[in-house]
Design goal:
Blueprint (H helix, E strand, L loop, with lengths): L5 H11 L1 H23 L3 H19 L6 H23 L5 H68 L7 H34 L5
């Protein structure tokens, strides 16, 4: 069987799933927007509780609180891998499709809420904090979630077609590519976790929030 060059395979994948990628990106963006709006709906006591938690966190950070970097890295990477692993599992079933969409939306909501809350409470300093400590690792995490979400929905739709429309279609090659994609994205998330563990705390120490 003739092997298709990686560049052509990637181009074919993007062309085949372009509309799905656009849909997932729009869904994620809606989550970000909703998360930012959600900040304004918080009750005063909820904002005070969050402020107290963040103030304590930044105080401990600036006082040089010792944190085990290995444990922090494992925690961060574990959380990321669990997220894409769950999306992978949901993509293996037809009923998991809507849950994948919800997970993509919720990821956007968390990002939007985090940035929105920092900006709401500390204005320009908060935006700077978000730009230096939240954005960098999310430049890797967000594309991974979008790619994984698209792949999960695509595989789930393929299962639907193979079961109800194209009976007898060999699904194994697509399953193999789907699984290999998860492994590749896992390596990318490990880089994001390294940045989150070792670089982000250093950047946050440079910013004083008042």
């Amino acid at each position: 069987m003739r092997r298709i060059p990686f560049g052509q395979s990637l181009q074919h994948h993007l062309k085949e799933n372009l509309s799905l990628y656009l849909f997932i990106i729009v869904l994620f963006t809606m989550g970000v927007s909703f998360g930012a709006i959600l900040v304004n709906s918080l009750a005063t006591n909820q904002k005070q509780d969050l402020m107290g938690y963040l103030t304590q966190f930044f105080s401990e950070l600036h006082s040089g609180l010792k944190v085990n970097p290995t444990a922090a890295f494992q925690q961060s990477l574990g959380d990321h891998l669990k997220y894409i692993g769950l999306i992978w599992m949901l993509g293996l079933s037809i009923i998991g499709l809507p849950i994948i969409l919800i997970m993509v939306f919720l990821k956007g909501l968390v990002v939007g809420f985090t940035v929105g809350f920092l900006a709401h409470q500390w204005h320009w300093s908060g935006l700077m904090m978000a730009g230096l400590s939240v954005l960098p690792q999310n430049l890797l995490v967000i594309p991974v979630i979008i790619i994984m979400g698209t792949a999960g929905v695509s595989f789930s739709l393929r299962l639907i077609r193979s079961r109800f429309m194209r009976r007898g279609e060999h699904i194994y090659p697509f399953f193999l590519r789907y699984t290999l994609l998860v492994v590749l994205l896992g390596f990318i998330l490990s880089v994001a976790s390294l940045f989150e563990t070792f670089v982000s705390p250093l950047l946050m120490k440079q910013i004083g929030l008042g």
